């Protein structure tokens, strides 16, 4: 399942016998996998499995206890211009009056003074990324007037500044209702294909990504499994990653990962939206009727 391609230039990310420790816990324990250039990888796994920690390691923000990582053929380095990163915690955006275009520009290197003072190169790059995510209409409006899905579009634009080759998107779907989730996944997939870049997209539900991902990287119990959905989303692999018996059910093109009669991803993350202040954020959403749809969904199978 883990490719060991000899040509490193063909690979976007090579993780070779990597151990990552936080405190006295091994978040990853001797993990080896290779992401090829131009792949859209869904990064899944229970809460606390290490999705965020892995992304931080790829960014050089966390020392490796052992092993090596190469991104775009290069050893890991902080501030790597080849990587665009959307961090998991994005609370507080909903209350901001800053205009969309200025918000995107704020993420450009060395431009903390606002767009009027930006260099022509930065201005051009801002327009380029707004084009890519089709956000020119949003760019004139303040963040506070945008829906969660629209703000996500601008966050993606920020990640694309400087033409990175690899995007690390940490849980872009948290707090979005299902309709907006699909919109964000479709957008990322379109941009990823258009630019031929590599995407690691973490999520706690597989289904919204099913039509877009090339392969899945599933983390759990210090292990990592990378492969196609058919290779990874199986009883045997997931039971190993969760450390307990897991069932996989396929219903109408959707896949449900079950522990007993409980759908495991819903159970795991049921508390998360409130934790990050997204309840408040929904007050500004234009889709009140959908805002809590995700949360209201049952944790049990009978909702299928
Ligand atoms: N600074 C830290 N020190 C010790 N443990 C941490 C630290 N940050 C995160 N952890 C723990 O590391 C594990 C992996 O966390 P994380 O990468 O955020 O998982 P995920 O993104 O998959 O939910 C969790 O058990 C978390 O509690
Ligand atoms: Mg995380």
TrEMBL record:
SMART domains cross-referenced by the UniProt entry: AAA
Keywords per UniProt: ATP-binding, Cell inner membrane, Cell membrane, Membrane, Nucleotide-binding, Transport
Top-level taxonomic group: Bacteria
Domain ABC transporter: 13-246
Amino acid composition bias (Basic residues), ranges on this chain: 291-304
Region spans: Disordered: 271-304
Record Gene3D superfamilies: P-loop containing nucleotide triphosphate hydrolases
Molecular functions per Gene Ontology: ATP binding; ATP hydrolysis activity
Protein name: ABC transporter-like protein
């Amino acid at each position: 399942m883990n490719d060991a391609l000899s040509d490193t230039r063909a690979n976007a990310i090579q993780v070779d016998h990597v151990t990552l420790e936080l405190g006295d816990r091994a978040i990853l324990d001797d993990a080896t996998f290779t992401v090829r250039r131009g792949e859209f990888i869904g990064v899944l796994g229970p809460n606390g499995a290490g999705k965020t920690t892995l992304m931080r390691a790829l960014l050089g923000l966390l020392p490796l206890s052992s092993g090596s990582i190469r991104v775009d053929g290069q050893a890991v380095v902080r501030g790597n211009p080849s990587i665009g990163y959307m961090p998991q915690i994005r609370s507080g955006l909903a209350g901001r009056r800053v205009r969309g275009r200025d918000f995107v520009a704020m993420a450009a290197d060395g431009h903390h003074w606002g767009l009027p003072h930006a260099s022509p190169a930065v201005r051009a790059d801002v327009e380029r990324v707004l084009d890519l995510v089709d956000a020119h209409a949003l760019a004139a409006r303040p963040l506070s007037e945008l829906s969660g899905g629209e703000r996500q579009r601008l966050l993606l634009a920020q990640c694309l500044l400087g033409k990175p080759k690899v995007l690390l998107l940490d849980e872009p779907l948290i707090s979005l209702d299902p309709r907006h989730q699909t919109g964000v996944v479709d957008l990322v997939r379109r941009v990823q294909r258009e630019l031929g870049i590599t995407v690691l997209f973490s999520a706690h539900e597989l289904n919204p990504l099913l039509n877009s991902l090339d392969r899945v990287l599933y983390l759990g119990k210090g292990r990592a499994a990378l492969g196609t959905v058919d290779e990874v989303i199986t009883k045997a692999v997931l039971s190993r990653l969760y450390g307990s018996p897991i069932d996989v059910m396929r219903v109408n093109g959707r896949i449900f990962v079950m522990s007993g009669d409980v759908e495991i991803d819903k159970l795991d993350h049921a508390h998360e939206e409130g934790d990050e202040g997204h309840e408040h954020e929904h007050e500004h959403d234009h889709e009140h009727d959908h805002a809590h749809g995700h949360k209201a969904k049952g944790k049990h199978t009978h909702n299928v």
